Amino acid sequence: MEKKGLGKRINEVRKDRGLIAEKLSEMCNINAAYLRQIECGVKIPSLPVFIDLCNALRVSPDYLLQDELTENEISQIREIELLWKETSPDRQELVLAMIKAALEYRGQ
Question: By 3-state DSSP, what share of the chain in percent is helix, strand and coil, each rounded to 5?
Fold first, then answer.
């Protein structure tokens, strides 16, 4: 696992949320120095700390780990969701009909 990629994402999200390191570390019940080590890529957080960071930052684990993960089902579903939100209602109906037709065809 690329420690710097994970730490960099945590740092970017923290700043984007307007949090200082001390506030985020307090929200996660960890030492601010430890958080800085995570953000610099010196340390990898334990699973409980990682979950606390995700919850405190209101971000999904796959977002923070996307540089380390290969394409997976969740990332594909999120991509579909983004495309869906950017599509007009008329096109959404067309896409839904196409998906249903494709699934029915595969079922034969």
Answer: 70, 0, 30
